[in-house]
Each structure stands twice: as C-alpha cells, then as structure tokens.
Specification:
By secondary structure, this protein is an alpha/beta fold. The chain has helices spanning about 5-15, 25-30, 30-40, 50-55, 65-75, 95, 100-120, 145-150, 155-165, 180-195, 215-230, 250-270, 290-295, 310-320, and strands spanning about 15-20, 40-45, 80-85, 125-130, 170-175, 200-205, 210, 230-240, 275. The chain has a single domain, classed as Alpha-Beta Barrel (TIM Barrel), CATH 3.20.20.80. The chain has an eight-stranded parallel β-barrel, surrounded by six helices. The longest helix has 19 residues, at about 250-270. The radius of gyration is 19 Å and the shape is globular. Bound molecules: alpha-D-galactopyranose. Alpha-D-galactopyranose binds near residues 83, 131, 208 and 237.
C-alpha cells in the first residue's frame, strides 16, 4: 500500500502542514514540485512576496514569481500565507539610495500594502503584515519604517492591509517562540494594538530552531497566552538544525523527536498551522545564508536531499495520525 500523503492526514484532521516555496525549484525540479503538491496543504512564498523581489524600481512591480507560487497554491487547494508586507530586510537595492522624506515613506508603504495585499485579495489566506519589528532585547527595532513613522507604523500597516484584503493579518517574529523577554514584548505590543482596535488577527512564531531548541512546553504556554488575548497562533518558519560543534550521535533521531514534541505541544495548545521553512534539505536557506553553513548543520527539514522522507517526517506523521 502506498502511504497516504501528509497533507491528506492533515486535511482529515483539519490542521495545516506547510512549506515555504521557491519559484525556481517549482518550475525546474519535478521532485520538488511533486512533494510540494502532495505533502503540504499550506504554503508560503519563501522570498517572492518580499519588497525587494517585488519592486525592481520605485514605481514598478514584478509579480511573476509571486504569482507562480500563489497560483500553484490556488490550483492545488492550499492555504496560502503571504510573507511579508513590512520588513527591514530584503528591501529593494534602490531603496538604500533613496533620499526620502517621512511623508514619502508613508505614501510608499501605504501604496505598497494596498497594491500587494489587494492583488491577492482572493488568493492569500493570511498575511505576515509586519515581520520582526521587535529587537532581541524587547525594544522596538529601529528601521526605516520606525524612523519615518514612529511606532505607529505597525498600526498603520495593519489598517492599510485590512483596507485591501480579507485575509487574516499576522505579526511574525523569530526568537519569540517560547516565553522569554522578546515574546513578552510582543505580547505587550499586540495587547496594545488590540486595545486600540487595530485589526490584528494572529501572531506567527517563526521557530528557526538552529542549535538552540526552545522548550516545547514553554512554546505551548506561549501559544496559550496569545490565544487567550484572542489571537490565532501559527508556527510559520520551522526548521531544526544543530550547532556544528554540538551535533548529537543520532542527529536525525534527535531532530525527529524535537519535531514530534513541538507538533504535539502546538496542537495541544490550539495552534493548527505549522509551516516548515522549505521542502527538502537540498535547498534550505541554511546552506547559503551568511556564515550559517559554518555554524549550523544544513539538513533541517522533513525531506532529505533526494526528497525521501526523514525520521522527522515519520514523527510528524505519527503526531497527525494520533
Ligand atoms: C526570517 C524571515 C524569512 C527568511 C528567514 C531566512 O526568518 O522571516 O523570510 O528570510 O529569515 O530565510
């Protein structure tokens, strides 16, 4: 008997298992395409919806790659996460040289959000409206957006997004998966936004578990407290690696155990969408980002280089079947 794909098990259970997708692999690699289609009922464009790739010049948009991924999602009945409307990284190259006024930034950001969220109104289910606005010490990160518009830029971004789309609107960040100083700060930020009537629907916990693996029990408690605020919680960018100097004897088993523990804790706490940051180890961002290849092992996902399922895949399947 051929095993039932993960997405069917997830569909039956009414939960979502996702992957971040890259347009080049989707177009050129049939194994990638097939795993993406069969095994996941949720997707996130890994880079294609970021401002840099979308905005070749100040007045133009290039939606080619974003459309390819979003349309793949629509064609195969997937939940689509849009990532991301406002971020301090991966802005267009021309942006750095732009000598702008604060008002120009305001107009630019509003138009960007209206245009991009509006284009995918019928196809994108959830948006990471703002990504990584809080610094590691819990303060508001200083970015071009905060410098031009003050802390209010978050309120404005969510309001502008809600004018253009009916998608659920998320705040997304890293290092805030468990209860800690940063997730406390995000809790306060979102509580304040809700008090002011800002249309924020959820919080995305990225969960890049690279070397440090946040305690699953604390992740569960963190999810619960955000849910008690009235927010949905999703795990948006999960991957699991090890510090090069601290690789256990049986890394694939330890990795599988961590995936299992996190999935159990999240589902128990009422988080029903977990997206992994890629389809297979061959194309993980960890193999190409900054000095990460020297720092971390580069096989953090559910499928290996040959697109074969790993112990982590079996562990996730077992949790979903349970
Ligand atoms: C952050 C961003 C993602 C991605 C990863 C690394 O987590 O939210 O879009 O850039 O870094 O790939």
């Amino acid at each position: 008997m051929v095993d039932q794909p993960l997405r069917e098990i997830a569909d039956e259970r009414d939960v979502r298992i996702g992957a971040a997708l890259a347009p080049g692999s989707l177009r050129s690699d049939p194994s990638y395409w097939k795993r993406a289609k069969d095994e996941f009922n949720a997707i996130t464009p890994e880079n294609a919806l970021k401002m840099g790739p979308l905005r070749p010049s100040p007045k133009t948009y290039d939606f080619t790659d974003a459309d390819a991924i979003v349309n793949f999602g629509a064609a195969h009945d997937k939940y689509v996460r849009g990532h991301t409307l406002v971020w301090h990284n991966q802005k267009p190259d021309w942006f750095e040289a732009w000598e702008h006024t604060d008002d120009q930034i305001r107009t630019f950001l509003r138009d960007h959000i209206h245009t991009v969220a509006g284009r995918y109104r019928a196809k994108i289910d959830a948006w990471d409206v703002v990504n990584e606005a809080i610094a590691d010490d819990g303060s508001l990160r200083e970015t071009v957006w905060s410098e031009a518009l003050g802390e209010e830029y978050l309120d404005l971004a969510f309001e502008w997004a809600s004018e253009a789309t009916d998608a659920d609107l998320y705040y997304n960040d890293y290092g805030a998966d468990a209860i800690n100083e940063k997730s406390d700060a995000i809790y306060d930020l979102l509580e304040g936004m809700l008090d002011r009537g800002i249309p924020v629907d959820g919080v995305g916990l990225q969960l890049h578990a690279l070397g440090d693996h946040p305690d699953p029990e604390s992740i569960g408690e963190n999810i619960e407290r955000f849910r008690e605020l009235g927010l949905d919680v999703q795990i948006t960018e999960m991957d699991v690696a090890f510090h090069r100097g601290e690789v256990p004897d049986d890394p694939l088993e330890v990795q599988a155990d961590y995936y299992r523990d996190v999935f159990e804790a999240c589902l128990d706490a009422g988080c029903e969408t977990i997206v992994t940051w890629g389809v297979a180890d061959a194309s993980t961002w960890l193999r190409g980002f900054a000095d990460f290849p020297e720092r971390y092992t580069g096989d953090p996902l559910l499928f290996d280089e040959r697109y074969d399922p790993k112990p982590a895949y079996d562990a996730v399947r077992a949790v979903l079947e349970d």
